[in-house]
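DNA-directed RNA polymerase II subunit RPB7
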Amino acid sequence: MFFHINLDKNIILEARHFGRNMREVLHEKLKNEVEGSCTGRHGFIVLVTAINNISEGMITDDGTARAKFHVEYGCVAFRPFKGEVLDAVVTQVTKFGFFAEAGPLSIFVSNQLIADDMQFESVGENAYVSADQQVRIVKEAEVRVRVVGMRIDASEIFCIATVKEDYLGLIGEPAAY
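Structure:
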């Protein structure tokens, strides 16, 4: 799920950036440092939407003439929850299940959490194939999954998901190149 939240961060700026464009340099440095990062508490920071406040700079005491600014900003964060339904793209298929990605989120679907009528086939390209051969989950296929478990670290979120329920599973074939 996506949230708009307010966070803060200390940004250190070198003396050569002091001047007329300092605010733009701080904004660019903030974006480079936080967009795409992950915190266990807030999830993945997708986009910095606004800078709410920039404190006056404090000269660092390491003798380098750098200044530290406390920046308060608004951002869009993506954090999954147990029970949430996500659309993802399959990245790898193995006999133990398949891996998929929903944006920056890594997802694993175990073969116990795949419909009972689907079997693993390793002839040619690895795939999970339905008994009637109509459904094939292969690399680059689009799937709809439900999150059943999560592991949250300081800098990463990893999910376990299922496709063993109604309206879950394959939603799009891989694009032909």
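Residues 119 and 145 are 18 Å apart (CA to CA).
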